[in-house]
Design goal:
heterodimer, A: alpha/beta, B: 16 helices
Chain lengths: 354, 323
């Protein structure tokens, strides 16, 4: 195993804006081992994209205050020069984005854009880069790649465009692929194909993958480890199996309960998480999830939870002020389909109710 | 594409016809001096006026006059070549006079275009890349000044300062220089000030426009992708950013060229350049209908043609556009 490929330690990314200091990422830590998959799950505004863009060095704007450590393959990325980061981007670390139509330049042929990525990092001729582009398009399952490389992005379908983006990202055989909402803009059936493609390429080239999504279903199969982010912090992190079998954070419970199920009876209401994501300028005091938490106590409004290990499982971290036994009891109720309010009444004593 | 061009050409013909008609109607309706009287000179006798009227075909009903005019313009309708009539003011034929003056207008236009592009585009790019900096603010303030200053004002100021006959700092040929210049280089030198004056406000407009466009373009997702690929910032800016941001400027440029070829009236007047604009201006002052119609037709032709060229060009620049 050796050293992890990517180590993020207490990363903070704050943006100074006219409206105030936006704490997009407020102290997160995670690691990604070589060849493994990490899923980062959270709503819009949770900081999941910003953290990955920062790893790539794409948030070095004038008003950004970045602190912490990001170590990739032994090199500290936050203190690396712009030129060093440019050399890493697209070569050792690659990223694909949510909307492949707007993420590809409309005026250039697809093959040209892939070849451009190759020539940015390899001393090859235009013809060789073009061949590599065609090879990659074939690898991602695009039929007639040599002909298709001459097409423009708007001439591809959504799924093919995302495949092309993956081809472009993997053209230089990166050690880490960051996929930011790779399937959100696609039809469901195409989503499955794309995820399958990423998995296949990952095992073929031993690439580590970070999948960022708001959809737990997307990472259910792919991820080895899942980190749940809320309001710029990681609120729970565990093996993928544990997250689905024995989650311990009310937000994770909410995410799981809100997934519509194929086998639920017709007409059954969806169970959303009430409320909205908080402003990253004016975070709620104490636990940042407390305004939306069905199990909130008075103390939770003042005390900031820390990310601690769960008693039985050192790989499972959760940031919640509820006692572990309480959490386990609540989950055992919720997983049988009991509504959150009912579960709370059953498990928790009613003193100190918020 | 060929079908599109054919359709557009038909539209061009139709537009030019409509413009000619409208011009004719306007000047028929406006109260202006009777051209025959103007032509006749001092204290004309009624017979003289009548004979002049007949000579110019002014005694025929208006619609007939119009039809005759159209027939004369088009070649092969009973006579050879294009015939644009005689100026009411002097006996010169309109078409040769326009063609005589056209090179001057073209020279003025081409020089100004090259100048404003080479100033405006770099400034627009610098401002966009360094948005919010003191340099950006300075450049945009200067641009605002040049947009606001009218051409004739700027022209007179420049003459006052730099003309070698009357200026404070005699550097450049004064405003009679162009009409007196003979060689190409002399003419070019005489045009330096007009070029600067004409280019000033256009450069400012283009700089501001490109700045806004480029700032928006640099927010696009494909710019983020280009950076994520590890491309150099220079390549991202030029090949990805400017390449996308410049397309509306091509359209704008085409139209501006079309308009200027129809005559930069103010510049030509201030600097005494015998171009189409000056010709038109004089004709309007003298209610010289054939000249007005001729210059309007030329101007419209240039604008409409440049518009067509630019639209076709757009299809080559932006592959998403298909006709």
């Amino acid at each position: 195993m050796g050293e992890p490929l990517l180590e993020v330690i207490d990363l903070r990314v704050h943006f100074e804006t006219d409206d105030g200091l936006v704490k997009a990422v407020d102290g997160i830590s995670y690691t990604v081992e070589r060849g493994e998959t990490l899923g980062i799950v959270g709503e819009s505004g949770s900081g999941k994209s910003v953290s990955s863009l920062t790893v790539m060095g794409l948030t070095r704007a004038r008003n950004a205050r970045i602190s912490g450590t990001v170590r990739f393959d032994g090199q500290d990325l936050l203190t690396a020069s712009d030129e060093e980061m440019r050399a890493i981007r697209g070569d050792d670390v690659a990223m694909i984005f949510q909307d492949p139509l707007s993420s590809l330049h409309p005026f250039y042929k697809v093959g040209k854009q892939i070849a451009e990525a190759v020539r940015a990092h390899r001393e090859v001729s235009k013809a060789q880069a073009w061949d590599r582009a065609v090879e990659m398009l074939g690898l991602v399952g695009i039929p007639e790649p040599r002909r298709r490389a001459e097409s423009y992005p708007h001439e591809f379908s959504g799924g093919m465009r995302q495949r092309a983006m993956i081809a472009m990202a993997l053209a230089n055989d990166p050690k880490l692929l960051i996929a930011d909402e790779p399937t959100t803009a696609l039809d469901v059936t195409v989503q499955a194909q794309i995820l399958e493609l990423i998995e296949r390429l990952q095992s073929e080239f031993d690439t580590a993958v970070v999948v960022i999504t708001h959809d737990l279903g997307v990472v259910a199969e792919m991820a080895d480890e899942i980190a749940v982010m809320y309001a710029g912090r990681i609120v729970e992190k565990a093996n993928a199996d544990t997250i689905f079998a024995a989650p311990e954070h009310p937000y994770t419970w909410g995410l799981l309960s809100s997934i519509p199920r194929l086998d639920s009876p017709r007409g059954e209401e969806l169970v959303p998480i009430s409320g909205r994501p908080p402003s990253l300028i004016n975070l709620p005091g104490g636990c940042s999830f407390h305004p939306r938490c069905p199990y909130v106590r008075e103390a939770h409004k003042r005390v900031d939870p820390t990310l601690d290990e769960v008693p039985a499982d050192p790989n499972h971290l959760v940031a919640c002020l509820l006692a572990p036994e309480v959490r386990r009891q609540l989950w055992s109720e919720l997983r049988t389909g009991v509504a959150p309010d009912e579960a709370r009444k059953d498990v928790m004593t009613e003193e100190e109710v918020a | 594409m060929a079908a599109y061009i054919a359709r557009r050409l038909i539209w061009v013909v139709f537009l030019l016809f409509m413009i000619t008609l409208i011009t004719f109607v306007i000047f028929s309706v406006l109260p202006s001096g009777d051209p025959a009287v103007l032509r006749a000179g001092r204290q004309p006798s009624p017979q003289l006026i009548e004979s002049i009227r007949h000579q110019f075909g002014l005694d025929k009903p208006k619609p007939v006059q119009f039809v005759n005019y159209i027939g004369d313009i088009l070649p092969f309708l009973g006579h050879n070549g294009f015939y644009f009539g005689f100026s009411y003011q002097n006996q010169t034929q309109v078409l040769p006079e326009i063609l005589n003056r056209l090179p001057n207008t073209i020279f003025l236009t081409v020089g100004a275009v090259l100048l404003w592009l080479s100033i405006g585009i770099p400034i627009g790019m610098i401002s966009a890349v360094k948005t919010g900096s003191w340099l950006d603010r300075l450049l945009m303030s200067v641009a605002l000044i040049f947009i606001s200053a009218p051409v004739y004002f700027l022209g007179l100021v420049v003459l006052y300062l730099f003309a070698d006959d009357i200026g404070k700092f005699p550097l450049l040929p004064g405003n009679s220089a162009y009409s007196q210049a003979t060689t190409f280089w002399q003419k070019g030198e005489a045009l330096i000030m007009p070029w600067c004056v004409l280019a000033a406000s256009f450069a400012a407009v283009y700089a501001r426009f490109l700045r806004g466009n480029l700032i928006d373009t640099l927010q696009e997702d494909y710019i983020r992708t280009a950076r994520a690929k590890g491309l150099s910032e220079r390549r991202v800016l030029f090949r990805h950013g400017v390449r996308a941001a410049i397309t509306p400027i091509v359209t704008l440029l085409g139209l501006d060229i079309g308009i200027l070829l129809g005559g930069a009236i103010l510049t030509e007047t201030v600097f005494n350049i015998q171009g189409i604009g000056r010709y038109a201006y004089d004709a309007i002052t003298n209610s010289d209908l054939p000249v007005i119609q001729g210059t309007v037709l030329f101007g419209a032709f240039f604008i409409v043609t440049m518009s067509l060229i630019v639209d076709i060009l757009y299809a080559f620049i932006d592959p998403r556009v298909r006709y």
